[in-house]
Design a protein that fits this description.
The complex is a heterodimer of chains A (about 375) and B (about 600). In chain A, about 45% of the residues lie in helices and about 20% in strands. Chain A is an alpha/beta fold and about 375 residues long. Chain B is globular and about 85 Å long. Classes of the chains: A alpha/beta (about 375), B alpha+beta (about 600).
Chain lengths: ~375, ~600
């Protein structure tokens, strides 16, 4: 069974007020050590439970994986290579934050077999960085980028955010230019969404979060696509751009709705049409695994209808769209026999297009993709 | 049996919160017949809504036995009346069943608009009024000032005044003796043909409509054939009784007595308040005076949010109207809102109560459209049509002129707020009638203005301008010609009938502009530009545009997000489903309410 592996590191040096991923600021080293022990146990349990699986890609996300020591990161990857069948050539990504990235750590990471680094830059404007709670400045971004290059990484992503409180279109364009000047292989741009239960959401409800209007965010997004394309970064997904052949393979597998195994607190797995979510609590997670119990909090069985909807919606996020043949291969029916009405309605409204092999979003469809996606829900 | 000389029938009238319920409680303390446990149910208003809003919707009656200082035992029939202007006809009929009234005035707040309205009604029914200045225990109480205010009110010269504290019981005994002394006993002739006044009725699923009545002449016994005089229908009396406060059967009710009657009336619409019951075999020649058919004054359309709830809504309205014949409802169908009802009410509060009961007791989510008054449209062909829905206004070319209902509005307020309130009322097309000073710093203001003008947020405005110190009351006075015009709203070139409104010509443009701007913020952006226009006849008078949706993107969607992101999309989809589709445009339900928010 071909599968991707996601590893969640739920630790950060400080919490960002917009972020709703599960993470904590650890107060001692022992907590991290215990967590890593648990993580290794979880990997071992799964390797025994599914001996036939074949890892296609690995992604270490968080939180901030680079708050771990270089050696600790090395050991995690080592465990994966030891316990699972892993092809040596696969893409292995780690997310890193500028404030917790240095030469020695980078060296360890490189030697572990990790071959792709995603830098959480978010902005090159120091004021904005501060206002969104980042604890690094633009120099730290550039420095960590250079370290990664010097050590030999040839696949680097820079994450940027737009639609930030008080941000102007010009400001974002400047940030984008600075990122492009570094020549990373990959750039992701995410518009800020105010997630429930975050500090930003509280401010938003109070009316004190000065986020730009939809029209301004639209301008930012539209201009960014143009600038990136002018600089040879091809958009291959709603938020993702890369130079040729440097698309993120791991993420593409998500959008093709392929199975994945997620380990670590709060991680999600999608195996054999079931979706599992691990418990979002480091201590409980550690406790369960100490007793060799999988720390699954919820299991969602996906009915065929929903699997179909999700397959279409996820694939449409990619510019290439959904391959008609892939749909037939997966469900034994043509996509038109399930979603014929929706497809022709969306075509009429010029939100999707098709060619011989694919259905894909039009330019307008990209901008209002949610309007497209809801059509495919039951 | 008690002699008729020992019967006292009276009501308690008061402005909201002046202590009606607590006075009633204290009176009960000094009489027999009620156990502590029963009391709560009877004396306090028993519907949740009544308790919350501090008003009585239905009349109630309770029969009490009082041992007076003169050694005789008296029957006190205390009739509790609905306390709000919407129910003024019901109040007047309840008062007609009495010989006296206890008028309660808060010693701190003094005379209020409703107090005056109540006094006038009591005087019209020739009641003896006993004035009670209550809450004298309050540190802010100023009974002397209240006495001064009372002097200014016509018709109260001969009324005795008592100071009470319902809280600590002071003065209550004196009031009890005053009831014996000042309120006359019922005068009537037992040998005359039966005349009994219906002052309320409630629906009971076993016995049908149970009538609350007062015997004016003659007597009534079970098995008797009786007739309701308004429609000449004949019934046989199954049961009669008195309120203790529980219903207790008796073998006869005679002159002056207050009680109930069950005679197999199917529902309350057959037992109209104010109607006269007589002996079918020996009918009275005349009805008791004052009966009128009450007709709804305020109309609005009510639609279920979920189309599937239509049957439930119909059932709920059927049920509610069993007990409240003043609600009218006719099925209607709107392209925008689906199936619903055009409903008529006695007033704004009545409307609000019914809407809340539908939502609360029947758990139906509702969309209620802007309330409308009843317009009298005089056509060029001399026909007169009454319309209660702006969208059904006839073609302008066929209209000679249109009349709308006017009210006489009474505002009682501290004089420091006079300017603000007068400005408000003038803006609402009010015409000044009179100003009187009740005392040095309180005044009574009377205006004539269209009922339509108090439909939307008038009460709230009065409250906020006067910091809550002004009280208002109104009665419908007449129909008058007004230069009115209908404004239609078009969304994406299509008229949305539920958004049409009728307005004074001078105000139409401003209101149309505000509404159009309002709708722009309420209607979500669609896949294309949506023009919103307001027009009078064929002329567009205001417009705005909901620009096409530009951006609706979920930036991140990776493995861990999929379930949650799908739920977000599902929510978006559910929101869309709840919207009503007019042509190609999805209009959320708030849009239909936003008409209400245009001042």
């Amino acid at each position: 069974m071909n599968i991707s592996l996601y590893i969640h590191i739920p630790f950060c040096n400080s919490k960002c007020p917009y972020c709703d991923f599960y993470s904590i600021v650890p107060d001692d080293e022992a907590l991290k050590e215990n967590y890593l022990d648990a993580l290794k146990r979880e990997i071992i349990i799964y390797s025994q439970k599914y001996p036939q699986i074949n890892i296609q890609s690995i992604y270490i996300g968080g939180g901030t994986p680079t708050v771990l020591k270089g050696q600790q990161i090395f050991e995690i990857i080592q465990t994966c290579f030891d316990k699972f069948n892993v092809n040596k050539e696969i893409e292995v990504t780690i997310e890193s934050n500028p404030e917790s990235f240095n030469y020695d750590k980078a060296q360890n990471i490189f030697e572990s077999g990790i071959n792709r680094i995603s830098i959480g830059a978010q902005s090159f404007n120091n004021k904005l960085l501060e206002s969104i709670g980042r604890i690094h400045d633009k120099h730290a971004i550039i420095k960590s980028y250079q370290i990664a290059r010097d050590i030999g990484f040839n696949n680097i992503n820079i994450d940027l955010m737009f639609g930030l409180p008080g941000q102007s279109v010009i400001q974002f364009m400047k940030t984008l230019e600075k990122a492009i000047l570094l020549h990373p292989e990959h750039i992701s741009i995410y518009s800020l969404s105010v997630e429930p239960k975050t500090i930003f959401s509280k401010l938003f409800k109070k009316g004190t979060l000065n986020i730009p209007s939809d029209d301004i965010v639209y301008e930012m997004y539209k201009n960014a696509i143009t600038i990136l394309q002018d600089n040879e970064y091809e958009q291959y997904e709603i938020s993702n751009f890369s130079i040729q052949k440097k698309e993120c393979f791991h993420n593409i597998r998500y959008w093709k709705n392929c199975p994945y195994l997620g380990v670590g607190a709060s991680a999600v797995s999608y195996i054999e049409k079931n979706r599992y979510k691990n418990i979002s609590d480091v201590n409980k997670y550690t406790y369960f695994l100490k007793h060799n119990i999988l720390p699954v909090e919820t299991k969602e069985v996906l009915p065929l209808k929903e699997e179909m909807s999700e397959t279409v919606i996820l694939n449409l996020r990619m510019m290439e769209g959904i391959a008609k043949q892939d749909f037939i291969n997966r469900f034994n029916v043509p996509i038109e026999s399930i979603f014929g009405k929706q497809l022709s309605y969306l075509k009429e409204n010029k939100l999707i297009e098709s060619n011989d092999s694919h259905y894909f979003l039009t330019e307008r469809g990209i901008f209002i993709s949610n309007t497209v996606f809801v059509e495919f829900l039951n | 049996m008690h002699k008729v000389e020992h019967i006292r029938n009276f009501s308690i009238i008061a402005h909201i919160d002046h202590g009606k319920s607590t006075i009633a409680d204290r009176i009960l303390d000094l009489t027999e017949t009620i156990s502590q446990r029963e009391r709560r149910d009877q004396v306090l208003d028993d519907m949740d809504l009544e308790r919350e809003k501090g008003i009585t919707i239905k009349s109630k009656a309770v029969r009490l036995l009082y041992n007076a200082e003169n050694g005789h035992q008296y029957i006190f029939n205390l009739i509790d009346t609905p306390g709000h202007v919407d129910f003024s006809y019901e109040v007047s009929r309840s008062l007609a069943a009495c010989e006296g009234a206890l008028l309660i005035i808060d010693a701190a707040q003094g005379v209020q608009a409703q107090t005056i309205a109540n006094i006038q009604m009591a005087l019209e029914n020739n009641l003896s009024i006993i004035i009670i200045i209550n809450k004298i225990d309050l540190s802010t109480a100023n009974p002397n000032k209240v006495k001064e205010e009372i002097k200014k009110i016509e018709g109260l010269k001969d009324s005795p005044v008592f100071l009470t504290s319902a809280k600590d019981g002071r003065g209550i005994k004196e009031v009890m003796e005053a009831i014996v002394k000042y309120i006359p006993y019922p005068r009537g002739v037992i040998n005359n043909p039966l005349q009994a006044l219906i002052f309320d009725s409630i629906y009971n699923s076993y016995q049908g409509s149970i009538v609350y009545l007062r015997i004016v002449n003659g007597e009534i016994k079970p098995g008797m054939k009786i007739q309701t005089m308004s429609n000449q229908k004949t019934y046989e009396v199954n049961e009669i009784g008195v309120f203790t406060p529980k219903r207790k059967k008796v073998s006869q009710l005679s002159v002056g007595e207050v009680g109930y009657l069950a005679a197999g009336f199917k529902d309350v619409s057959l037992t109209k308040v104010g109607d006269t019951i007589t002996d079918a075999n020996n009918p009275s020649e005349k009805r008791l005076p004052g009966y009128k058919k009450v007709s709804p004054v305020v109309f609005c359309s009510i639609y279920p949010v979920e189309n599937e709830d239509y049957q439930n809504l119909k059932y709920a309205l059927d049920k509610l109207s069993l007990n409240d014949s003043s609600i009218s409802y006719i099925a209607e169908n709107s392209p925008a809102l689906g199936f619903g009802f055009r409903c008529g009410f006695l007033g704004l509060l009545h409307m609000e109560i019914i809407q809340e009961r539908l939502e609360r007791e029947y758990q139906i989510q509702l969309i209620a459209t802007t309330p409308s008054v009843v317009y009298r449209v005089h056509l060029k062909n001399k026909q007169v049509v009454e319309i209660n829905n702006p969208s059904s206004l006839p073609e302008v070319n066929n209209i000679d002129y249109v009349e709308e209902p006017f009210i006489k509005l009474t505002v009682v307020l501290p004089s420091q707020f006079l300017g603000g309130i007068m400005e408000l009322v003038q803006d609402r097309r009010g015409v000044f009638q009179n100003l009187e000073y009740l005392d040095q710093d309180r005044a009574r203001l009377i205006y004539n203005l269209p009922l339509n003008e108090i439909m939307l947020d008038f009460y709230d405005k009065v409250k906020s301008i006067s910091k809550g110190y002004a009280s208002i009351d109104y009665q419908i006075s007449s129909y008058q010609t007004s230069p009115l015009t209908k404004v239609d709203i078009l969304v994406n070139q299509e008229v949305v009938d539920n958004l049409s409104f009728i307005s004074h010509k001078d105000k139409a443009h401003l209101r149309a502009r505000k509404l159009v701007e309002n709708l722009k913020t309420v209607i979500p952006r669609q896949m294309f530009d949506v023009p919103i226009q307001a027009k009078i006849n064929q002329k567009i008078i205001a417009r705005s545009t909901v620009r096409a949706l530009k951006k609706d993107v979920l930036a991140k969607c990776y493995g861990g997000d999929i379930t949650r992101k799908r739920k977000l999309l599902e929510k978006q989809k559910a929101g869309k489903k709840r919207m009503k589709k007019v042509g190609r445009v999805e209009i959320p339900q708030e849009a239909f309410m936003s008409v209400l928010k245009v001042d």
